[in-house]
Model the fold of this input.
Amino acid sequence: MKIAVAKGDGIGPEIMDAVIKIFDANQVKLEYEYVEMGKWVFDKGFSNGMTPEAQRTIEDLGILFKGPMETPKGKGVKSINVTARKTWNTYANKRVFQTLHGVDTVFSKAGIPIDITIVRENIEDTYGGVEHLLTQDVALSRRFITRPGSLQVIKYAFDMAKKKKAKRITCGHKANIMKLTDGLFLDCFYEVAKEYPELKSDDKIVDDLAMKMVVRPDEFDVVVLTNLQGDIISDLCAGLVGGLGFAPSANIGDHIAIFEAVHGTAPDIAGKNIANPTALLLSGLALLRHVGLMENAAIIENALLYTLEQGIHTGDFGNRATSSANTTQFADAIIGNFGKQPQHGAKELLPNHPVPHTMFKLEHNLMMETKETQQERIVGVDMFIASDEQPEVIAQKCLHHGGIKFKLISISNRGTQVWPTGSKYTNLVNQYNLRFEGLNNQSLNQLDIIGLYVSLCADFKICSIELLNMWGDKRGYSLAQGQ
Ligand code: NAI
Done:
């Protein structure tokens, strides 16, 4: 069985070499095809951070084991990590956080066991990275939450929870504020929950979830979230079990799966051979189980647990009074402990049942679509304009633009209504949303909208427009605060 391997940037090559050394020492029957991906590939001029050969290899083999890869903050190239997850539709990011004996935390010291699996939606949300500057002062990000995308990841979470005999599955969200986006995700959650009556399903608003996870982490089992909230909550969970050095992740899709640690390239310690390889090793063990190499996975995991129980540690955790092992020494200690049984959490030795990963070729991109059952109607339009004038002045100018089709019903600034009612205490930025609806509730078409656009252009710079749609009696847009 062959898999693609990308060592990554920063500490990536050091921890990947350590993990492959452990696999080789355990005679793991995998062949590795090393591919070119990462910051250094961007630097060679490949705009998506990987060579065409790397893409071909990964699409042929279907499994990628990758080290962390660097992304510049606030400028420069897009994240190769996110590009890989999105390009290959690895819609479910599974992250397992368990108490590891030998890794002291406030919870382990208090005897509170933690076993939480986060399933984070991996493709949508603000990670679409679709952002625009509407004015020099105002940046806008589009947040995509889709019904098919949500159903896909939520079904995965329920299936996985059922297989692992979970007691509870919780949806984290912010549907009280983001009623359409998070509201859709939450609706999908309860729609899927109906098919799994044996599982206790509930939901928590994400801020409350964060607090409860810190106070009583043992009450949680499987938690499914949208992308950004899932990213943050899973780092919180990493903190509960001892830090990022212990947080593995698997990005699962229908065709391609990517296994990687949650942490990044740790530039502060790169090149020193002191990084903790545990998170990447745990991700590698998830990979071995994914391809049916159960016995190898159990022997290596037991050796890892035994090593941690011995108090052997890298510099980022463990007893500060004892000297720390470097990356290579830590890997060698694990190899030396093959065949040993840890006192806590020993894994059962199941036989290997290799499951060759067969890729079937896709001829087209798959369209995931819910058939519309309700009649769609355009009832208005949001015109986003650049302006530093007062709301009343803008409203006055709009009077002669509506014509016989439109009426201006609201002006908002950063989502808060400032006309026809509002407060002088609402600070403004130089970008407004003018909300027009059809006069006398009449339906509109796209040409009507263009007519209004052309008319408004005489007075305003329009930065963006958004249609106001109704599906049956369901409103497809949010109201402004105070509208
Ligand atoms: P980071 O995870 O690289 O580092 C955060 C802190 O944790 C640092 O103090 C680091 O030394 C420590 N740390 C992380 N992994 C460790 C390990 N295995 N052993 C010991 N200590 C470890 O996060 P940061 O600094 O925000 O990001 C650095 C770069 O990594 C950025 O370019 C970022 O975009 C990228 N990144 C890549 C990811 C991926 O490839 N999946 C995920 C997260 C960040």
